[in-house]
Amino acid sequence: MKKYLLALSILFTVSSFAQVPDDALRTAWFTQNGTARNIATGGVMGSLGGDITAAHINPAGIGLFKTREIVLTPNFLLNNNKFNYRGTDNSGSANALQNGPIGVIIGSPARSVNSKWTSSAFSISVNQLANYNNHIQYSGTNNYSSFTEQYLEELVRDKADTNAALSNYIFGSSLAFRAFLIDTTLVGGQLGYKSLVPISTGVLQKYDAASTGAYQEVALGLAGNMEDKLYIGGSLTIPIIYYHRDLTYSETDVTGNTNNNFSSFSFHETVNSFGIGVGVKLGMIYKPGESWRLGFAIHSPQFIAFKDDIRASISANTESYAGSRTVTSDQLNSGNTGSREYNILTPWRAIVSASYVFKEVVNTKNQRGFVSLDIEYVNYRGARFSATDNSDQAAKDYYDMVNDEIKDYYKGNLNFKLGGEIKFAPWAFRLGGAYYGSPYADNNLKANRLVAGGGIGYRNFGIFIDLGYAQTFMKDVNFPYRLNDVANTYAAQSGSRGTLSLTVGFKF
After folding, report:
1. How many CA atoms lie within 13 A of 277 on its CB side?
2. Domain assignment of residue 401, yes or no
3. CB neighbours (10 Å) of residue 95?
4. Are 267 and 28 in contact (CB under 8 A)?
5. How many helices (H) and strands (E) does the chain have?
6. 245-256 burial, b if ≥16 CB within 10 A, otherwise e?
């Protein structure tokens, strides 16, 4: 049966919750970004030190500095996306600028000759941990499920009456309800809801999301050097995240039947998200012998407070049923963007590392190279959402549900990084690679990242210039929507990303 809008209905809004497990992964699963030297060697920095990247991985590594240094690192990214969605191959590309570590390190010898501390160092740096500039596009025919079923689940879960369906879900279900994409029906004599999308005969689904933004980390690092044997350090980190996504999703009837009450619909959403928080990274490096270095670091969860601004609209053509209609969240929210505030606690991680430095001496000019291995554990399932307002029980209940999904959906896993360098002063040549394991608990979701890198460096007269390149081969999955009552469909990703990095540094 059709629903009829009441002109005198009182419109009101409720808090909008739209977080899914993927949002937590955006702040947790990323490949290592650093100086060109670090990128070229696969991201190994757990036990090496002597690089400003250490402040973001193992802060003890800045304890190797005894002089002052300023560093600049611009990067260029080349995204090559490939997706397969329900048997249909799709591809696209997107390039972007990125910054590696930018900052200064001030190292100084101990003031007292009787002190066990040989030197200390302080650093201030900014590093981009993740870059969100991308364009994801894919399409395919689906006769199994529809985007609209998430609206049905929401209305049934909340036991929503027609007034609630009209007004309480201004970024989703209410838009679909007012556009007649979702309508009321009688189920056993009781009010229920139905979708007008003819799933059994199939629809062409298209997903198109353009995103921009970055996960920047400001690190204030401090480290001490005890007799050139033991290095201990820590960093106070301030994550700053900006994320913008412009999403268009559509479903179109593939039968050509003009009398089945459905032709097509399109959902459009723009989200601007900003977050700032705090965290701590601690580490140590120990030299058991002249050539060996052993490292350990632990990164606390970062607490990040987010605020999102959101707008959404639905355009639907239900043919003779209700014709063509467009409904926007602005119409239901007095022309204003929607706003939601929440917190994220990122997963903790731990790193163990070992390095062998050829001809290890205090004077680094006499070193001939190194080989280093890092093993990193990340507890992806430890990510947590929380409400900013503890008195909002609805928000607390919602985020408890999302957190339960995260615990079921993700797992902890290991990342491996191996790299080396050989020096022919003033030149250095580097190679490295890394393997990032899947964060998903479901082994059917094929996901990993394989990195291969290399580069060259020049260091002389207090100046160094490094050039590095890394190619990341990615396997991942992308869910166009999520349902609770049926298995979720997804697009399988198999693209790659190239990172070209240039680092320039000066001692002063």
Report:
1. 24
2. yes
3. 14
4. no
5. 8, 24
6. bebebbbbbeee
Candidates 355, 299, 346; CA nearest to 56 is 299
- 300 within domain boundaries: yes
Q: Which backbone phi and psi does 320 adopt, to 5 degrees? A: -75, -10
DSSP state of 440: B
Please indicate, yes or no, if residue 498 is contained in any of the structural domains: yes
Q: How far apart are CA 138 and CA 45, in angstroms?
A: 37
Among the listed residues 485, 486, 487, the one whose alpha carbon sits nearest the alpha carbon of residue 157: 485
Q: How far apart are the first and last CA of the chain?
A: 78
Residue 180 tokens, joined:
């007649």
H or E segment and range at residue 253 = strand 230-253
Q: Which two tokens stand for residue 497?
A: 């990303």
Q: Could you tell me which residues are beta bridge partners of residue 174? A: none
pLDDT tens, 136-151? 999 999 999 999 999 9
The number of folded domains in the chain is 1
The answer to whether residues 220 and 124 touch, using CB atoms and an 8 Å cutoff, is yes
Quote the CA–CA distance of 293 and 285 in Å, as a whole number.
7
**Distances from the Cα of 374 to the Cα of 57, 231, 291, 417, angstroms:** 11, 17, 17, 5
State the pTM of this model: 0.90
All residues at 6 or more sequence positions from 6 whose CB lies less than 8 Å from its CB, including other chains: none
DSSP for 408-422, written as a single string: HHB-EEEEEEEEEEE
Q: Tokens 């260029």 sit at which residue?
A: 76
Residue 74 lies in a domain: yes
Residue 331 DSSP label: H
Low-confidence ranges of the chain (pLDDT < 70): 1-19, 360-366
- Report how far residue 293's alpha carbon sits from residue 110's, in angstroms, rounded to the nearest whole number: 22
Which range of residues forms the domain containing residue 72? 21-145+184-507
Q: DSSP characters for 268-330? A: EEEEEEEEEEEEEEEEEEE-SSSSEEEEEEEEPPPEEEEEEEEEEEEEEE-TTTT-EEEEEHH
The domain spanning residue 399 has which CATH number?
2.40.160.60
AA letter at 495: G
Q: 274 is written with which tokens? A: 């900003």
- List pLDDT tens digits, range 439-485: 999 999 999 999 999 999 999 989 999 999 999 999 999 999 989 88
Q: Which helix (H) or strand (E) holds 149?
A: helix 149-157
Q: Cα 72 to the chain's mean position, in Å?
A: 24
Residue 242 CA to residue 341 CA, distance in Å, equals 14
